[in-house]
Amino acid sequence: MTENPTRQARSGGRGARRAMRAAPDFEMLPALKRALPECEPMTPEQIARIDDASMLILDEVGVVFRDDIALEDWRKAGADVRGERVHLDRGLVRELISSIPSSWTYRARNMLLQTEQSITEIAMACGCRSTSHFSKVFRSFFGKSTVTHRNTLG
Asked: Where is this region: Disordered (predicted)?
């Protein structure tokens, strides 16, 4: 008999298998090469071509809006509204783009946190005509509902 037999630790086990599965195996795809060409910035002429094509589509093809409120807003802005299709001429698009402010404040978010106004009052103050539309836009922008935002941060 041997004195003090030494036990060798087992290699492997659940942790080792998990680590092996999680580790990247670069030999699996040895032929993977970047085949896409480098992308150079567009020239002013290329930008002008894209701009012309997009303006042509907005003017001749138009954009379909199925919301009556949006259609009325486009009429008031001076767009050519035919049924659900809105046609925008270059001048109107340029005018609307030039009216975009260079910066803005998240007014709705701030009002939810800093006032006790109801969500309906905040929606109306922000220019929305319906609370459901306001809530949908708020959720898509901030990733949470107006009520959740007010309760978690307020």
From this structure: 1-20
Tokens standing for residue 103? 């910066």
Q: Is residue 126 a contact partner of residue 107, using CB atoms and an 8 Å limit? A: yes
Asked if 74 and 65 count as a contact pair (C-beta separation under 8 A), the reply is yes
Domains parsed from the chain with CATH numbers: 44-98 (no CATH), 107-153 (1.10.10.60)
Within 10 A of 34 (CB to CB), how many other CB atoms are there? 6
